[in-house]
Amino acid sequence: MYIHRCRFVEYTPTAINALAFTPLSTQPLLACGRANGEIEIWNPTQRWNLEKIIPGAKNTSVEALTWVHRTIIKESDSCYSQTKEEQEEFLKTLLNKPPRLFSASSNGLITEWDTTLLRSKSSTNSHGGTVWCMSTNHANTLLAVGCDDGGLRIFDIIDDGLILIKNLMRNDAKVMALAWDNEDKFIVSGSSDSNIIKWDIHNARIMQRMTVDMKHGKDNIVWSIKILKDGTIVSGDSLGHVCFWDGNHGTMLQKFKAHNADVLCLASNKEGTMVFSSGVDRKCNLFRIADYFTTQSSNDDFNENHWVLVGFRRTHLHDVKAMALREDLNDKFFVSGGVDTSILVSYFDGFPEDKLQRLPFIPNKPLISISKSKKLLMYRSYNQIKMWRLGNAKLPDSWKLEQIPNLDLIEPQQAILEMTLKGNYHLTASALSEDGEWIAVSDIETVKIFKVQNDPSNPDRICVKKVKFPKILVNGSSAGAHHLMFTLDGKKLVIVNIDSSIIITELDDNQHKEIKILHQFYEHAQPLDGNTSVITSIAVSGDSRWLAVGDLLNRINVYNLETFKLHSTLPKFSSTNTSLAFYPSKPTLVITLSSNEFFLYDIESQKLDDWSLTYSKSLPKTFLNLENRLVGCTFNPINSDAIILWGANYLCLIDFDKCRKEKGHQPHLATCTGWRENSKYKAIEQAPKQNGLTKKRKRDKTEKNIKRVKTDKKIINFQLVFRYRSLMCVDFIEPNTMIVVERPFAAILENLPPSFYKAQYGS
């Protein structure tokens, strides 16, 4: 089998500036704000599934994030003076509402986001320039922001927006950090002029002023502030100090020179007994509280809280700019992120020894489109479309056929198109037709369609002509798409609108002056239960007859594109669907889930097929426990009895023809020697034990990359390949010829500025 291994795609995620978990009163979600204005929403309960990406506006960055989920009744609520039963009903309605997400940007705007349409719901000007920090009070009724002009502004959070109620001004020093006390009576802020200010919110006055150390008369920036449960104030500054302050008297209790450079972020647990710090030097420190007894004291009852630096580890490869902590009944973990663009998950009960998980930085939504017949590959960046013509795969020497997973089988690719698109927001979707004649792109405001033509001035390049497309409106505003996909016959374009309605359009080669809308489906936009959700997966069958669509609530519908009717609705699965794919030769749909389970659904009989009924609930634990979830599926056209599933760092081939039941004894574990040209696999059985030992056979070097795994009762032929990293696309362009597009993490780091380095003595 021939493999195109492509690394010319220059996808580069941007730095992480902010991280925020939802309140404990609602389902756990993590919001990640990036330097390009994008906001990612991750679900830790679904194996850290990246559920949504809110596209950023051009020339903006996310500086702060917070979630709001109100759990109390305010005096301004209509039910406040009503009966207890009416108040309880109102409170129940509040609790059932999803949390609200706010971000603060370098453009001075505070934005509330619609997490279903994935666009702005409303924006409020801070009137103070860049917003550097933001936090809600514990009651989730007030929002405080710290601004570039030195102002601390308090907003009342109402259902449809924000109302400015207080403007606390001190001087021109930037407010870089803030935190609320546990009773929501005061706010502590850290500034760029070495000062920590304690504000009385009710009377809008300064209660206390604390000053951190200065160096050579220069200001020391207070980058981060936390208030613990007992009122202790913790600060991190640009001299690398982590300081603990008495919240009542404003005196310093302890100071640690814990870092060699700026302390950019702090995090603490609910009980206030653990504090994490990190910053420019990449160290993540853990401080714990301990009882300190002074035997010299004449008071036998004398004791005070004493903080100890108990451990650290360097987890990131560049500045750490944000941390967030979540404590549920079963899980206690914190996440961190920064300039190296990736999110790291740590379970802090075992810090610093416990294993870390690095979340994939490649988005679930495909950035790559392929025309197999024309051997074209198209890539979507934030505001550009690039296209290459694929060269021919090289035929390896016969002795290397067993080592194909370790070969780079690619000739130089030829760039034939580069197109920069105008608009206010980053692109959200793109598609290339199978015949290479059409290109569709979209942001959250508009869908654009182009007809591909030869460039008369350069035969090695192509040009495009824009085709008129009717404007789509959602709530009275122009709207774009979350997904785009052409049918394989090139006659239709499927558009998943931002409100989850599905538009089917007709493409005409002869008259392509304007696109015609054929039909619109509303099952996901207007569900019977009233709960609209984001569509995450779409697929079109090889005969262009069937369309499958799945959303975050695991509603998967199959539509007939000939009759424009809903054909069937699949049963709901226990985990979120991550991809859908049709078999090329039969009406069977493959559904992959965030749990790494997958199912095969027979479209015509409208039920799970026999293989899924037998095996899908008995998949190997080795496969189910893979760190990264499944994100895609592809098929070798020459082998109808096998599929290839893939995640961010692995490929997995399942040969259905070799699945068999094992009788009378436990299944054995075998390994595979390599990928053969005919896509069939040769296995080496593990020899039986003799005298407590196992005879070892000579194994090919590729066994470290390819393994066969087992189930408890059945043998399923699973071949796992770990050769590739940060996969963006895996697909077959013809029988026995596969293209793999990867973006190694090392390539991301090469584009970053040098990280902090402190020379050691003798080095």
UniProtKB/TrEMBL annotation:
UniProt key word DNA-binding: no
GO biological process, one term: maturation of SSU-rRNA from tricistronic rRNA transcript (SSU-rRNA, 5.8S rRNA, LSU-rRNA)
Domain of life: Eukaryota
Keywords: WD repeat
GO molecular function, one term: RNA binding
InterPro entries according to UniProt: Quinoprotein_ADH-like_sf, UTP4, WD40/YVTN_repeat-like_dom_sf, WD40_repeat_dom_sf, WD40_rpt
Annotated WD repeat ranges: 168-209
UniProt name for this protein: WD40-repeat-containing domain protein
Organism listed in the record: Gigaspora rosea
